[in-house]
Structures are given as C-alpha cells and as structure tokens.
C-alpha cells in the first residue's frame, strides 16, 4: 500500500532531513517553554524529581521507571497544549465538542500525573526495602 498520493513523490530522507526535524523539535520545545505555563510547571516538577530518582538507592530499572513517568508528564502536556492550540485555531468560538476535546486532553495530563504518583509510591513502598537502604546510606554518611 502506497502512503503517498499518486501525484506526490515519496519523501527522501537524508541527514539534513534529520537535523531539520531535530531543529523543529527543539523549536517546539522552546515554544512550549515560552508560551505554556503548564508545561513550565511540569518541567520544574521533573527537574526537581529527576535528581532524587537518580540518588535514591533503588535499582536501575526502578530509576528508569521513575524518570520515565516524569518524562511522560512532559510528553502528554506537550500533546495537550498542541491539541488546545489546534482547537483554538480551528474553532475560536465556544462549542460543546471543542470543550469536550480540551477536557479529554486535560484528563490525559491528569492521568499522567496519577501514573507518576503510583510509580513513585510503588518504587518507594516500605516493603520494597528502599527505606532500609536509605537509612543505611544516611548512617554511613554521618
């Protein structure tokens, strides 16, 4: 099955295309940083908790899950912001479907925060021996 219409040539990929794509991604990241307060808040949340995830005495898989749950918040927040911008651009007036779309995108962000909370609680649950390792680490430091 050909994804390109018959009158359009297939896209050629090159190193230049890759760097152009990276440039667009970086521009999108900084646009969100400049214009989206919720994205900035999520980024601060991630920047504060990532070092904690790294220094906590948990195994590498747990650390990766904890950091991944933080990054997921940023990804979903970017998608939410993009969806809201598209809705505002296409239909600036109030409409019940536009509200539903925006509410559903916001719910996705909320679920990503809940996911992060659940992952961190599971990784740091007392029966997970993390608290004993933290105590050992603190005792050896003092």
Explained architecture:
The protein has 142 residues and is mainly alpha-helical. It has one domain: Helix Hairpins. Helix content is 79%, strand content 0%. It is built from 5 helices and no strands. Helix 2 (37-55) packs antiparallel against helix 3 (60-90) and helix 3 (60-90) packs antiparallel against helix 4. The protein is extended, with a radius of gyration of 21 Å. The model has no long low-confidence stretch (mean pLDDT 89).
Descriptors for this entry?
single chain; 142 residues; mainly alpha; Helix Hairpins; 5 helices; 79% helix
How would the blueprint of this fold be written?
Blueprint: H1 15-35, H2 37-55, H3 60-90, H4 96-124, H5 130-141
Helix pairs in contact: 2-3, 3-4
In short:
The chain has 142 residues and is mainly alpha-helical. It has helices at 15-35, 37-55, 60-90, 96-124, 130-141. 79% of the residues lie in helices and 0% in strands.
Succession of helices and strands: HHHHH
- CATH fold field value: Helix Hairpins
Determine and state the CATH class: Mainly Alpha
Whole-number mean pLDDT: 89
Low-pLDDT windows of residues: none
**How many structurally independent domains?**
1
- Which CATH architecture would you pick? Orthogonal Bundle
Class from secondary-structure proportions: mainly alpha
Radius of gyration, taken over Cα atoms and rounded to an integer in Å: 21 Å
Helix content: over 70%
Intertermini distance: 66 Å
For the secondary structure, the number of strands is: 0
Strand content: under 5%
DSSP helix count?
5
Shape call: extended
């Amino acid at each position: 099955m050909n994804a390109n219409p018959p009158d359009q040539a297939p896209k050629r990929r090159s190193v230049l295309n890759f760097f152009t794509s990276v440039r667009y991604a970086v521009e999108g990241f900084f646009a969100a940083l400049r214009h989206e307060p919720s994205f900035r808040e999520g980024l601060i949340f991630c920047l504060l908790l990532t070092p904690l995830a790294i220094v906590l005495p948990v195994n590498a898989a747990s650390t990766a899950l904890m950091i991944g749950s933080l990054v997921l918040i940023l990804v979903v927040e970017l998608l939410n912001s993009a969806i809201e911008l598209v809705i505002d651009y296409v239909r600036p007036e109030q409409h019940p479907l536009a509200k539903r779309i925006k509410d559903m995108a916001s719910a996705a962000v909320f679920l990503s925060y809940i996911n992060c909370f659940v992952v961190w609680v599971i990784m740091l649950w007392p029966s997970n021996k993390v608290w004993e390792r933290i105590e050992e680490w603190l005792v050896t430091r003092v």
